[in-house]
Design a protein that fits this description.
Elements: E1 2-3, E2 15-18, E3 21-24, E4 30-31, H1 39-48, E5 54-56, E6 60-66, E7 69-74, H2 77-87, H3 92-117, H4 120-138, H5 142-149, H6 153-159, H7 175-185, E8 189-192, H8 197-209, E9 214-215, E10 220-226, E11 229-235, E12 240-242, E13 246-248, H9 252-259, H10 262-267, H11 270-274, E14 283-291, E15 303-307, H12 313-322, E16 331-334, H13 336-339, H14 343-346, E17 350-358, H15 377-397, E18 405-411, H16 413-420, E19 451-453, H17 462-473
Parallel strand pairs: 1-9, 6-15, 13-19
Antiparallel strand pairs: 2-3, 4-8, 5-8, 6-7, 10-11, 11-12, 14-17, 14-18, 15-16, 16-17
Helix pairs in contact: 2-3, 3-4, 3-7, 5-7
C-alpha cells in the first residue's frame, strides 16, 4: 500500500489545473529514456508495464544563455562535443577530456550504489573497495575538476549550465552529481506523452495487479515500532495499518524528525546524523497560461537557461543572496505544452510556460504558519514583484508571448513545503555537496528492523534518482 498525504498521488510528478490549463509541477524533461536498453527506460517500462510513452524533445534539449550569447546542448555525445568545440575551438582537448571524465565518473558510481544495497556483513568486507573509485570524483567539487581541464571561465560556465537540475553551483556541488546529470542528457531529453500525470496513471494499474493499492489523503503520523522493529504506521486519523516492511519515501529530515518515535531517534542518534547533511535549495515557479497553440505562438521545445553576463555561477549566487534585487543567478524556462504531442488534443488553442529560479526559504518564513492560498496581502505583493521580474525575462526571450497571457500563478518554497512536506521547501531533498556522498546512513537499510528508506535522499535528485532508489530498496 502506498500512503499519500495529499489529495493527489504522484508527489512531484502531479499536475494541477486552473481555468483551461494544466501545469506539470516537477517534471520538465527526463533523459536516458530514448535508449531501449538503458536502465531508466527499462525501469519505467517495468513499473508501467510499457504503458508510459515518451516524446523526444528534438536535437537541442538545453540552450545556455549568458548575456547576449547562447550555447546549444545537442543530442548525441559526438554531436555534443562537436557543438561545444564549435563555440570554443581552442578548447578542443579540454572538451574531449571533460566528456571522458563524465563517463568515467558515472561508471564509478555503479559499485558505490551497489554498496548501499548489500548486507552489512558484505559491506564491511567489500564496502571500501566498492566506494573508493567513486570517491575519487565525488570528493571533488565540479569546479575543482573542470578547472584542471581549462582556465576558460566561460567554458566552465557553459558546461555547468544545467546546475539548476541539482541545485548547487560548481564550487559547491560534487562532480559526481554534475557528471550524473550531464550524462543523463547526452542522449537528449524527453517528456511523458499526455503530461507527467501519466506517470502515476500508468504505475497505478501495475500496483493494483500485484494486489496493492494507492491511498490518497492518507497522512502517516508515526511509524509504530516495538522492540526496535517496525510493525506498522499510525495514521493522522488515529487508525493503524500493519505490515511486514515499512518503507519511508518522505525524505530523511521528515522521516527522522517527524515520523519516528523520539526514543528511537535518540537511541540511534539520528538527529546527529542529520547535522551532517544540509537541505537543498528552495525555488519559486511561475506557471503561465497563454492564448494560442504552441505552433501558433512558435514556442520551442528547448529549455532555456538564462544567466547574467558577468561573473561565474557561484559569484552570481552569492551576489543574489546578499541582495535579492541583484539579477537572478539563473532563470530556467520550460515549455511543457510544446514538448507534449498530446497537449493540443486536450487543450486546443492554449499553451503553457514554466519559469523557475532560486529563492531562499527565509524570505517567506514568517508566513510558514499561514494557510495555503490565504497568506495575506504582503505575501501576495512579494509574489507579484517576483512574477513581474520573471515575466520580463520571458518577454525578452519570447517576445511573441506579450499580450497572449491569460493567467499566471507563482509558487513559493511554502507551496513546496505544503505539498511535498519538506521542512524548508527544498526541491531536491538533501544538497549534493561532496560530503553528502560520504554519509554511510544514506542507504535503504536502517538500524530499525523491517524499516527502510527510499527516495532521492539515498541516491540523487530527481525522478531518475528516486526511481533507482526504489530498486536499491527493493
Amino acid at each position: 500500500v502506498v500512503l499519500e498525504r495529499r489529495y493527489i498521488a504522484g508527489g512531484c510528478t502531479h499536475v494541477f489545473k486552473r481555468k483551461d490549463y494544466e501545469w506539470d509541477v516537477g517534471i520538465q524533461y527526463i533523459g536516458e529514456v530514448q535508449r531501449e536498453k538503458g536502465i531508466l527506460k527499462r525501469l519505467f517500462d517495468y513499473i508501467t508495464n510499457g504503458e508510459l510513452k515518451w516524446a523526444d524533445m528534438g536535437e537541442v534539449y538545453d540552450r545556455i544563455i549568458i548575456g547576449d550569447e547562447h550555447f546549444d546542448f545537442v543530442r548525441g555525445v559526438k554531436n555534443f562535443k562537436e557543438k561545444i568545440i564549435s563555440y570554443f575551438p581552442e578548447e578542443e582537448q579540454a572538451i574531449h577530456q571533460y566528456v571522458n571524465l563524465v563517463f568515467e565518473a558515472v561508471r564509478s558510481s555503479k559499485n558505490y550504489y551497489i554498496s548501499k544495497a548489500i548486507s552489512p556483513f558484505w559491506e564491511k568486507l567489500f564496502g571500501s573497495y566498492l566506494k573508493k573509485p567513486f570517491y575519487k570524483f565525488s570528493d571533488k567539487t565540479t569546479y575543482d575538476v573542470l578547472s584542471t581541464l581549462t582556465t576558460n571561465e566561460k567554458l566552465i560556465k557553459v558546461l555547468t549550465g544545467q546546475y539548476g537540475d541539482y541545485g548547487l553551483p560548481p564550487k559547491e556541488s560534487s562532480f559526481s552529481m554534475h557528471a550524473s546529470v550531464a550524462r543523463h542528457y547526452f542522449d537528449g531529453g524527453s517528456f511523458p506523452i499526455g503530461g507527467s500525470s501519466q506517470i502515476v496513471k500508468t504505475i497505478d494499474p501495475v500496483i493494483e495487479s500485484a494486489g496493492g493499492t494507492i491511498l490518497i489523503k492518507a497522512e502517516v503520523n508515526k511509524v509504530i515500532i516495538e522492540n526496535n522493529k517496525a510493525i506498522g504506521v499510525k495514521m493522522s486519523d488515529g487508525k493503524s495499518i500493519y505490515a511486514k516492511s515499512i518503507v519511508s519515501n518522505a525524505g530523511i529530515n521528515t522521516t527522522f524528525n517527524r515520523l519516528l518515535p523520539i526514543e528511537i531517534v535518540e537511541k540511534h542518534h539520528l538527529k546527529e546524523q542529520l547535522q551532517k547533511v544540509k537541505p537543498s535549495v528552495a525555488h519559486v515557479s511561475l506557471y503561465i497560461g497563454l492564448e494560442g497553440s504552441p505552433e501558433d505562438l512558435n514556442i520551442p521545445k528547448t529549455n532555456l537557461w538564462v544567466y547574467p553576463k558577468n561573473g561565474d555561477h557561484d559569484t552570481c549566487v552569492k551576489n543574489y543572496l546578499d541582495d535579492l534585487n541583484q539579477p537572478f543567478p539563473l532563470v530556467y524556462l520550460s515549455f511543457p505544452s510544446a514538448k507534449d504531442p498530446d497537449w493540443s488534443k486536450r487543450y486546443p488553442g492554449k499553451s503553457t510556460v514554466d519559469i523557475i529560479t532560486l529563492m531562499p526559504y527565509e524570505i517567506f518564513d514568517k508566513w510558514s504558519d499561514s494557510k495555503w492560498m490565504k497568506r495575506g496581502e504582503e505575501y501576495d505583493s512579494i509574489k507579484e514583484k517576483i512574477a513581474q521580474r520573471l515575466l520580463k525575462i520571458l518577454y525578452e526571450k519570447l517576445p511573441q508571448a506579450k499580450g497572449k497571457i491569460n493567467c499566471y500563478e507563482l509558487s513559493t518554497p511554502l507551496t513546496t513545503k505544503h505539498f511535498v512536506n519538506y521542512k524548508n521547501g527544498e526541491v531536491y531533498g538533501l544538497d549534493h555537496s561532496p560530503s553528502r556522498f560520504r554519509q554511510p546512513f544514506l542507504k535503504p537499510r536502517t538500524k530499525i528492523k523491517n524499516f527502510y528508506l527510499t527516495g532521492q535522499d539515498i541516491v540523487t535528485a530527481g525522478v531518475g534518482g528516486a526511481l533507482f532508489s526504489g530498486v536499491l530498496t527493493a
